[in-house]
Amino acid sequence: MLDSKRPIPRDQAGRHPGLALAQWRNRLIASPRFQALAQRLLPGRWIARRHARRLFDLTAGFVYSQVTAALVESGLLRTLADMPLTLDQAAGAACLTPHATRTLLLAAASLDLTQHVGEHWTLGVRGAALVATPGLEAMIRHHRLFYADLADPLALLRGSGGGALASLWDYAPGSDPADARTYSELMSATQPMVAAQALAAYRFARHRRLLDIGGGSGAFLRAVGESVPGLALGLFDRPQVIAATAAEDGIARHPGDFRHDPLPAGYDLHSLVRVLHDHDDEPALAILAASRAALSPGGRLLIVEPMAAPGKAPEGHAYFGLYLTAMRSGRPRTPDEIRAMLRAAGFSKSVQRPTPLPLVASCLVATV
Ligand SMILES: C[S@@+](CC[C@H](N)C(=O)[O-])C[C@H]1O[C@@H](n2cnc3c(N)ncnc32)[C@H](O)[C@@H]1O
């Protein structure tokens, strides 16, 4: 039997054996002789092309994002979803010259966002999927702030640049409630897909009362309430966020600050949806401890958010790693990292429940 605790043999300098292998591979890839050989052999040519494509996509990804943003912000995406347009009609709808419109539509067609059929333009496969995905257009518009911060990525990482995204997040006491409302609206727009992951992963009907901690405008609670009618619902968020949202029948409202205030008792299920990763380790642990303190024995905490996977899944460490850096708070965590924090906060056990689209959200269930 393999002993997983057995130490991995290291070289004389104390380095992991995998490092030498990775260095050998990297030298091979960089060698002109190896590259020439790969071009001559058919499988090698195929692999080289695939890597070249991926490398090009990495280099050009920002351009693709901006083509998509132009399609959304010009209104063309929505108009093409309603009806096919000739080039002149599209130019009129987008308030662009026919030449500029053609440039945009051709660029979008190369990304499967649009399609040229006869004399008309319509949506391509990805364009149709984009329109059908709730909240994605709102997210693309919101990325204007994020990409402004990313214009100098090193300044962002050094903490000397950015600030556009953080200003939206920072609705501390005294700030304009309109900012809290803008952010909550974005969160609500992207919420249906997240709620769908939680509903597919967890049987809420086994509980009596659900408290959504940092629940924003209550979109998650409304989605769960529609699927599980008997469940009593409670919303905990900052006072200015609660004040900025419409009073909902049947949802108990608890204004407060989860870093300092105790959470209300009497709920047998808590949820933290896209909340934990917004916070650095110390406040994140305080939130988990507050949940643990307010839950009775047998109570559960559901953590729903996109989680990181080391070396894989770029939505984790690449997207959220940089997004949360721009937010100036929090970090993406792996399920194992969160489980360790849950243990430190006093939860007796936690399990991961598979979700249909981990890219949107993964789900951990912790028991008191
Ligand atoms: C990223 S949003 C997520 C909103 C919602 N759960 C969702 O997924 O759409 C984070 C939420 O946590 C709330 N929040 C942040 N800090 C808080 C604090 N100290 N106390 C209470 N709520 C807080 C914010 O107001 C916001 O509604």
Summarize the structure.
Residues 168-348 form the O-methyltransferase C-terminal domain. The chain is an alpha/beta fold and 368 residues long.
Q: Write down the CATH topology of the largest domain.
A: Rossmann fold
Could you name the CATH class of the largest domain? Answer: Alpha Beta
Structure classification: alpha/beta
Gross geometry:
globular
Bound molecules: S-adenosylmethionine
Mean of pLDDT:
91
CATH superfamily of the largest domain: Vaccinia Virus protein VP39
Query: How many distinct beta strands?
Result: 9
What is the name of the CATH architecture of the largest domain? 3-Layer(aba) Sandwich
Tally of domains: 2
Which spans of ≥5 residues are poorly predicted at pLDDT below 50?
none
Strand content is: 5-15%
- Major β-sheet profile: 7 strands, mixed
Order of helices and strands: HHHHHHEEHHHHHEHEHEEHEHHEE
Domain O-methyltransferase C-terminal: 168-348
Pfam families: Methyltransf_2
InterPro entries: COMT-like, COMT_C, SAM-dependent_MTases_sf, WH-like_DNA-bd_sf
GO biological process, one term: methylation
